[in-house]
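#struct-pred

JT: dropping the chains for the assembly here, can someone run the whole complex?
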Amino acid sequence: MSSNATSLHTLVLASTSPRRQELIRLLGLPVEIVPSNVDEDTPSDWTPEQIVEGLSRRKAFSVQEKIAGQASGSSIVVGSDTIVVLEREVMGKPTDTEDAIRMLKRLSGRTHEVFTGVTCVRVSDGESITSHRVTQVRMRELTDEQIKRYVATGEPMDKAGAYGLQGIGALLVESIDGDFFNVVGLPVSLVSVMLETYGISTP
Ligand SMILES: Cc1cn([C@H]2C[C@H](O)[C@@H](COP(=O)(O)OP(=O)(O)OP(=O)(O)O)O2)c(=O)[nH]c1=O
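RK: done, full complex below.
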C-alpha cells in the first residue's frame, strides 16, 4: 500500500470557483473547500507574475490562518489566481456586460497570455511554495454581433478576460500554446509537481 493511502493528505481548496473545485479532484486526494474572500486589489506597478503569485499566496494563507488548529496537520491549502494579459493590459473578471464586450473586442484577432499563480501551504507549519504558468491563447476575429451574442449567454461574467475556454468560449478561440488547465484556472500538473515537494505523490 502506498504511503498516500495510509497518511490521507487532504487538499483544502481556497476557492469559490466551480472550475477549480472540479479540477482539483483530478489529483485523486480528499478535497475540502474553504473559500478565501480576500481583497484582490494589487499595487499598479506589479507585473502579471507578481499579481497571480501574490494573490494566490493571499488566498492560500488567509485559509491556512482560518483553519490552523482545526484541520489535520498534513492538510495542504491550495490557492490560485488567474488573469488575462494583452500587451500591457491586465484583465480580471468583467465588472458588467459593457466591460465584457470591451475585453472581447480587445482580444479579438490577437494572441494574449493567461497567467495562473498557485500557492500550496502546509497547515501544520505554514511551509509554502508558490509558482505560476503562462499559456498563449489566440482568438478568432470576432464581429460585434458575435461578441454581443456570446456575452448574452452570461458565460463571460465570472471569468478573467470575459471568456471560458472550457465552455462556449471554445468557439471563439483559434489555438492555444501551453497548458489548457492553466487557462481554465488550475494547472493540475503544476500542482502535482508542487505537492511532490511535500512528499505527496499523485497518480
Ligand atoms: C480565461 C478563463 C478564466 N476562467 C476563470 C478561472 C477563474 O475562476 C476566473 C478568474 O478569477 P479568479 O479571481 O482567479 O478566481 P475566482 O474569483 O473565480 O475564484 P477564487 O478567487 O475564489 O479562487 O476565470 C475560466 O473559467 N475559463 C477561462 O477560459
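JT: nice. The chain has one domain: 3-196. Residues 1-6 have pLDDT under 50 and may be disordered.
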